Amino acid sequence: MRLSIGNLFSLPANYAFRYLAREKLRSVCHNSRAIVLTYDDGPGTRLSRSLSEMLLSHGVRGTFFLLGRRVALDTETVDMLAREGHELGSHSYDHLHAWKSDTGRVLEDIDAGFNSVSRWVKPDGLFRPPHGKVTFTTWRALRKRGSRICWWTVDSGDTWPVLPTPQSIVDRVLRAGGGVVLMHDFDRGPDREEFVLKTTEALLVAAKSEGFRILKFSDLITPDAFSPKQG
Ligand SMILES: [Zn+2]
User: Fold this and answer.
1) 157 is in which domain, residue-wise?
2) To the nearest whole number, what is the mean pLDDT of the chain?
3) What's the gap in Å between 144 CA and the centre of ligand 1?
4) What is the 52 CA–ligand 1 centroid distance (Å)?
5) Ligand 1: centre distance to CA 65 (Å)
6) Which pTM value belongs to this model?
7) DSSP string, 155-221
8) How many domains does the chain have?
9) Distances in whole angstroms, Cα of residue 25 to Cα of each of 40, 81, 204
10) Coil, strand or helix at 37
């Protein structure tokens, strides 16, 4: 990463910030027995559509954090997600890593991401940071915008070199008493896409049998000390 006073200062602060924000999310999910299914880096013409169909067949909705450069290639899929009632947020335009890229470029990437989804997402809409990384400067810019930073509590492992089993992810979510699950819905070959579909289905089935609610991200009512937006 680039060495600068700002970045050096932000490293420990970033870890502390993420830790506290995730602990808060964990307790909100636990207290309301809620599971939030989130999908990053899409839209994927195949996978986003299959996921939408599956979620709707269970009467629930997902939260999709859209990547501007993929939105530009397939606005129809985003239209479909919006029409079907899923929650949409921004995941930047070009997925720049806030710690490893020039701060000015990262800020432009955040703005470009919101501009690319302006048909569906308000300028102060939900934002999930690429790679889960923010710096003090990007956090401040998001706060000024009024946008809520959306962390996750359970990584599905769908980008790991070796895929876990869907059941192991379900077990982690149930043990935690719910949570915000990170998955990815861009089209990237049968193995990964099948894993995301199977994990989603396993979570939907487990939620029903164990009495969890599937919520959209903004349905989590959380007094968020790190964001100007409440609830
Ligand atoms: Zn991403």
Assistant:
1) 5-218
2) 92
3) 22
4) 19
5) 8
6) 0.92
7) E--TTSSS---HHHHHHHHHHTTSEEEEEE-S---HHHHHHHHHHHHHHHHHHHHHTPEEE-GGGS-
8) 1
9) 18, 25, 20
10) strand
Confidence class for position 5, pLDDT limits 50, 70, 90: low
Answer yes or no: is 227 within a domain: no
What pLDDT was estimated at residue 15?
Answer: 81
Ligand 1 centre to CA of 184 (Å) is 8
- Does a structural domain hold residue 166? yes
- Give the span between the Cα atoms of 28 and 151, in whole angstroms: 13
Q: What is the CATH number of the domain that holds 127?
A: 3.20.20.370
CA distance 216 to 35: 9
Domain assignment present for 149: yes
Q: Which amino acid type is present at position 209?
A: S
Q: State what percent of residues in the chain have pLDDT above 70.
A: 91
Distance 22 CA to ligand 1 centre (A): 17
Mean pLDDT confidence for 199-219: 97
What is the mean pLDDT of the segment spanning 208-214? 97
Within-domain flag for 230: no
Mean pLDDT to the nearest integer, 113-142: 95
Q: How far is the CA of 106 from the centre of ligand 1 (A)?
A: 14
Cα separation, 165 vs 157, in Å, equals 9
Residue 148 has pLDDT above 80, yes or no: yes
